[in-house]
Amino acid sequence: MSVTSVPGFEAAGIAAGIKPSGNPDLALVATADRRPVTAAGVFTTNLAQAAPVLVSRAHLVDGRAAAVIANSGNANAATGESGRADARRMCALTAEGLGVAPTDVLVCSTGLIGIPMPMAPVETGVPAVCAELAAGPDAGLRAATALMTTDTLPKQTVVDAALGDGRHLHVGGMAKGAAMLEPAMATMLAVLTTDAPVGPDVLHRALERAVQDSFNALVVDACTSTNDTVLVLANGGAGGAEIGPSGPAYHALVEALSAACDDLAHQMAADAEGATKLVRLTVRGARTAEEARRAARGVASSQLVQCSLYGQDPYWGRVLSELGASGAFLDPERVDIAYNGITVCRDGVAALHDELAVQASMTRRDIEIVCDLHAGRGEATVRFTDLTHAYIDENMGTS
Amino acid sequence: MSVTSVPGFEAAGIAAGIKPSGNPDLALVATADRRPVTAAGVFTTNLAQAAPVLVSRAHLVDGRAAAVIANSGNANAATGESGRADARRMCALTAEGLGVAPTDVLVCSTGLIGIPMPMAPVETGVPAVCAELAAGPDAGLRAATALMTTDTLPKQTVVDAALGDGRHLHVGGMAKGAAMLEPAMATMLAVLTTDAPVGPDVLHRALERAVQDSFNALVVDACTSTNDTVLVLANGGAGGAEIGPSGPAYHALVEALSAACDDLAHQMAADAEGATKLVRLTVRGARTAEEARRAARGVASSQLVQCSLYGQDPYWGRVLSELGASGAFLDPERVDIAYNGITVCRDGVAALHDELAVQASMTRRDIEIVCDLHAGRGEATVRFTDLTHAYIDENMGTS
Q1: Across the 399 residues of chain B, what is the mean pLDDT of every consecutive 10-residue run?
Q2: B140: part of which helix (H) or strand (E)?
Q3: Which candidate in B187, B193, B385, B388 is catalytic?
Q4: Number of Cβ pairs closer than 8 Å across A and B?
């Protein structure tokens, strides 16, 4: 279950010496035949975009790519023109190693901001990682491992989906992140592979949709970091007619990409080292889905809500207050709130409930909160974690 | 230096038994002659407004009030129609005690959300606090003390301002809050008194302006709580012509109200128990003042920035990232960032600087960060605190 689970893709991961620790820090994913295939990317909306983001976006203009080179240990962000030259150099070195055009290589970086990329280990590391490219799950795992910063586990996924016409498509993926866990290097990176037969515009649209419902539904400090990147390469290996912008095959593609992204997002949240709770919050009954998302994110990003969850306190008054402050429309006296299936607030006031039962349920690691605004049919779900002493320990310094 | 520093105002504060601890919890401010005077209020923008907010807003429709009754220990929020009846009852009891109309009484509450107001202690406490009304600083201090929740100190102020035509005006004030310190009851309340001769519309406009530059420039979890309220009573004791909506006298009024609010806001930030740092962040060179405010609040409300300040780490990369994510326009390669007067980032990349000097300066309690976007003339300053272990301890539970 990795980027190499999709036939036609190879991967590699090595310790190039970018990280002072000597841990793996350079990953590569490439097409097995070194030909460029359909590619798409979704990038951070931060105005202070890192050099690799700018370079990858430029290289994606033609909707084609043959490889993704990715490093951990340095974000190559806030590094100016020399940083962009370094990112282009990473592509050129990869292109040289693989015999492809430099503009067919995409690049991602994650690590500390504001420090020039150490190019000596990159110069020796990129040829070395090119030489290691291989098919199979071990190669995929090595690549996923080289993406890790303070992740405790590599994050990989594979999805198999029926297109409804006898064809099957596959999506493989790897990611690193960062749900509340290491914001000093809080980038979310994901690289997906698929054998879907699809053009760049449709692939881009499907990817945006998948990211919206998965990574963007994860409330992480990283959600607008300088480096956030999700890339997908599609080699058409599933065969048959190209998937269009609508219809059952398109929806199957969106579903498959969404499932892969959602699995990776869930792994990120579960790997939040500082966290003791993994919370799934649904807001329903908002006027629109957009307002539901806004309300859900307002609650999920509240330090007060996060702290009370760490304290296992079902303090719904704070949830109601954050809903009211979120910008989403609501009539406070129609709001219902349930913790772990037990309604604690109905019509905006305390509901009679089994307090011992709800208190006991708060000791679980997985917490479910459902808020119903009774104002419409908009619904959204986000995942988030609690705010803990360990979170602070991890984020007090960069060293 | 208190609400009673302005001639013609009296105050009182008692322990009514609303707080289980037995600490003071009921405060009253009233005109000495019990006549209604010009009054204005600025309230939370939260859609889930507490009962006392709704009742005070209704009572302010005529721009007149004779008294403010305020309790700590219970927010009377998310309490529905019976909560509104309780808030109206607090006004009626006060009106009875003072011989004024119930609609000339304003009401504020602060404490836990979602729990019905304990009315038995209110029924006995309001007549008792009415009987204690007195002039002088001790009475003002007792009122300020009764507002406290987890504040460690009462917060009071007095400002003396020349109107430029021989007249002087005075502003007295008290507040409770809540800069990051006790969000389980994170309401910001302030009551101001003044002898300015002014009508309700001009007073309201001047108060909104003062709040914008003071309390709203304090990044507190409470900034959109269910109960946030700032009230002012103006008895015209300074004499002379009524202050109009412009001109030197109007500006002197705005300045005086702003100075009073700013002093109270500073006391709130300084009293943030969980905090070890008091940070003043200025964003200048934004396209507009509004964008400067947005950028400054984006940085100040970042858990990552707050954690790095707790760790005394001048990690400007995180500041740049939050500026870029704030929604304010910037060209990342024109941004300068200085910690305590030492420029650590120039034109968006690391600046050569004395690292030992900046590191040493980070051990101070008061930290100054200045960001220049070089995109215009918009400027804004916010105050905030760091995110600490103690903050989490205080906010893990409501008990």
Answers
A1: 95 97 97 98 90 97 98 94 97 98 97 93 98 96 93 94 89 82 60 97 96 76 73 96 94 96 88 84 96 92 87 92 92 96 96 95 96 97 86 68
A2: helix B137-146
A3: B187
A4: 200
**CB within 8 Å: A47 and B316:** no
The one-letter amino acid code at A68 reads V
Give the relative orientation of helices B80-98 and B119-131 as an angle to the nearest 10 degrees: 20
**DSSP assignment, residue A334?**
G
Return the CATH number of the domain spanning residue range A278-395: 3.10.20.340
Identify all chain A residues contacting B316, using CB atoms and an 8 Å cutoff. 114
CATH number of the domain at A3-270, please? 3.60.70.12
Total length of chain B: 399
Residue where the block lists tokens 């305390």: A350
Element (H, E) at A267: helix A248-270
CA distance B223 to B77: 16
Tokens of A224: 């607008």
Instruction: Specify the amino acid at residue A340.
Output: N
B145 has catalytic annotation: no
The pair of structure tokens assigned to B12 is 């009182």
DSSP E strands, A222-335 = 229-234, 278-286
Q: How buried is residue A341: exposed, middle or buried, by Cβ count under 10 Å (0-12/13-18/19+)?
A: exposed
**Tell me: the pLDDT tens digits for A265-286?**
889 888 876 789 989 999 999 9
A301-329 in b/e form (b: 16+ CB < 10 A) is: bbbbbbbbbbbbbbbbbbbbbbbbbbebb
Find, in chain A, the residue whose alpha carbon is nearest to that of B45: A325
Q: Do domains A3-270 and A278-395 have the same CATH topology?
A: no
Amino acid letter, A364: R
Question: Which of A252, A259, A258, A262 lies closest to A168 in space, CA to CA?
Answer: A252
Domain residue extents for chain A = 3-270, 278-395
In degrees and rounded to multiples of 5, residue B134 shows phi and psi of -155, 160
